[in-house]
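Usage example:
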Amino acid sequence: MKTTIKNIYRDPDQHLEKTLHLYGWVRNNRAQKEFGFINFHDGTFFEPIQVVYEEQALSNFKDVQKIRVGCAIEINGELVLTPKAKQPFEIKATHIKVLGDSAEDYPIQPKRHSREFLREVAHLRTRTNLFHAVFRLRSVAAHAIHDFFQTQGYVYIHAPIITGNDGEGAGQMFTVTTLPLENIPLDDQRSVDYKQDFFGRKTNLTVTGQLEAEAFALSFRNVYTFGPTFRAENSNTQRHASEFWMIEPEMAFCDLEQNMDIAEAMVKHIIQYVVKALPEEMAFFDKYVEPGLINKLDQVMKESFARITYQEAIEILLAAPTKFENTPKHGGDIATEHERYLTEAHFKRPVFVKDWPKDIKAFYMRMNDDQQTVAAMDLLVPGSGELIGGSQREERLDQLKRRMKEMNIPEKDFWWYMELRKYGGCVHSGFGLGFERMIMYLTGVENIRDVIPFPRTPKNCEF
Ligand code: 4AD
Ligand code: MG
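Running the assembly step on the lines above writes:
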């Protein structure tokens, strides 16, 4: 009977008294004189299974003894319950065949490897417990997100990857060009002549799918994107990547408070879904990565997230007994250490900070009546800092134009975006969830490089 380790763990009784047929890889091989143990993993489940082999049962016993770590093998055997042992059962092999040998210098040996080292062998690191767990969780979390939106009728839209605008107005874009870099054509002004470029204009990798999502929200009402975004931001931190995935819901007839309600419900849904779907992985993270993780997530599910204004956040920080490296000040950004204080020391739970000074936020955010702050919200969480950034969008064309002018945002790139205000515009809001930050929060893994299959960060694009 062809089966998998996952099937065996989920229903061992169905597998008794049958010859089982499995494919997988050797995590370890401990050969004794007349028998041996292979720690066998087949990719379908977090846990491996122990395979016992004996001289009398295998014609190729001597060869099996020499099977190296990393080999791909095929096994026939019988499942035996082992109530007295650490593992609940093992497989007694009747046949073991090497399908793909593994060389002596295989880097993933059965011992502890540093995460730094494993990043250098990212093509192999998913063969360790940690990365196996992280990337299965990443897959399940993606499903949880689709589940949350799809069951509520949101339309999933695929925003373009190549665009002609800077959706955040922050200038952190990777240019996309086919112009010859060694001989760049210039126009009369001696600037790069993008008319000769592939698209006949300057283009870049998208920094956000939000603007396109807004267009769709004004037709489908509730939509979301889930795709890669790119930032040419030279931040070498544990929480920034140059290529990361973002989930950007956008809702028509939705204001900032309702936007926060949706964000909170989404985060809670993801937690609940993942914790339920992956008990083995979560137990592993809880034991080896962030002690207390499951308890933390349980607690988050039970309480409402705090909601404060930016003004209140600054006052809390100014009154804090902690000495900060960056003194908090009205009008200034909230630094990582401040985020930590608010979420980890003061509130001890996720916090929405809303109504931010207009000067430190994007051009599309709706101006509040005070003309100083905008209807923006960030969700800060213990450990991962800013998990979500969102806002109510400026739906008044005159206000939007004024802001764009003040911020030197070229109208010509955004003519279609502005038309959305001209033809049936309405109150609408949305937010962006950094997918990797969510994975970090769910696993306790502290470095974003360890939750992206093949991470791209400044000066690093191997693989
Ligand atoms: O706050 P950001 O820049 O907001 C936007 O892009 C809006 N267009 C979202 C919207 O309203 N639709 O990014 C949103 C989230 C951040 O809160 C953070 O979690 C994540 O994206 N993020 C990054 N994650 C990894 N590496 C980076 N360089 C990131 N920059 C932002
Ligand atoms: Mg932000």
